[in-house]
From TrEMBL:
This is AAA family ATPase. Residues 6-225 form the Rad50/SbcC-type AAA domain. Residues 422-445 are annotated as: Disordered. It comes from the Bacteria. Residues 201-308 form a coiled coil. The keyword Coiled coil applies. The keyword Coiled coil applies. Keywords: Coiled coil. InterPro entries: P-loop_NTPase, Rad50/SbcC_AAA.
Amino acid sequence: MIKINKLEIENVKRVKAVKIEPTTSGLTIVGGRNRQGKTSVLDSIAWALGGNKYRPSQAEREGSVVPPYLHITLSNGLIVERKGKNSDLKVIDPNGQKGGQQLLDSFVEELAINLPKFLNATSKEKANILLQIIGVGQQLHELEVKEQEIYSRRHAIGQIADQKAKFAKEQPYFPDAPKEPISASELINQQQEILARNGENQRKRQQLAQIQAEYASQGQEIERLRSLLAQAEAKYAQLGADLEIAQKDAIDLIDESTAELESNIRQIDEINRKVRANLDKDKAETDAGDYRQQYDSLTTEINAVRQQKTDLLTNADLPLPGLSVENGELLYNGQRWDNMSGADQLKVAAAIVRKLKPDCGFILLDKLEQMDMDSLKEFGEWLEQEGLQAIATRVSTGEECSIIIEDGYVAGQEGIQIQQPPGEIDPGEGWSAPASAPTWKAGEF
């Protein structure tokens, strides 16, 4: 990974002249009070490495007669320099060959010099950045669309099932009602059939009475007409036989009651209302069961899709253990962005920046004063463990600061001069500073 070994800045924004040699790994905290030039250091690095789109709107220090000067030595041997009236860029590789912004862009990650762009992004934008760099963004999007579509279907099915179950529960049930609605015409036909059979019975009774009368009359006729006895006895015998048959038929006759049918006819509307209510209840219960089965089936599909998402992220090459994406939001150790500690937020951001361009081994961080000492220590230890370099600012003059900026200088380097003032002659390689002139040695502040 490429890191910043040394940097020299002069006359940029609030910086007068600063030489810094950041630690190779971990935190290099640029401390100081407000308006002393801390942020100007980070802006200078961003301008030097990121190009003119990061050039400050008022780059030249107010009151300076010497143009801005930027000189950065990178760990891969590249020297990046901006100087002169137009602050032209010059990039020299270890072999002495010149390069340009395109060479810097090949390994300098934009978010490394503009981390607020990531920190201020929405949760979904952060998640999308992560998903794209690990190569599963499109697949996860397709699975989430599929999950949402199944979820919507299941939700609609669940609502219908609940409505059907509620309707079935509210319906009255009549266990004594028949299974099918009753037809009035059918009941009337049954009544007519019974009345017809009863009429036949009445006809037979009347026939019996008639025969009985004739029999009696004929007996009298026998008494009266002895002379016709033979004829009368023959007829009487025949009538006796008929009488015996008629009596046998009459003994077994039983009249059927039409009371139930008459009652059913009178109550047909109420009976049919109960039948329909029972049918509605049965159908609603059946429908509710069917929809509940569909709901359970869709739940199984949703769980399968969610498992595919879990497997996709589990098998992905994530930049930090504990990172994941759920419902389009970035999670770290199960916490959403706004629930993460400041140290965890910076860990996630730094890990993602490193994953975007693995060759970029540094990040710039502004305004770390919101982090307490424990969080600073934790974050610094993580950076060292990961071999990452972070140059950060903090409104503080405490021991946690690697250097202190005071009035545009590093404390202890006050009055140093990096470029030659206009009109002065470069004394050449053999020149040495007077004993009274401030001196600077890499790594000592």
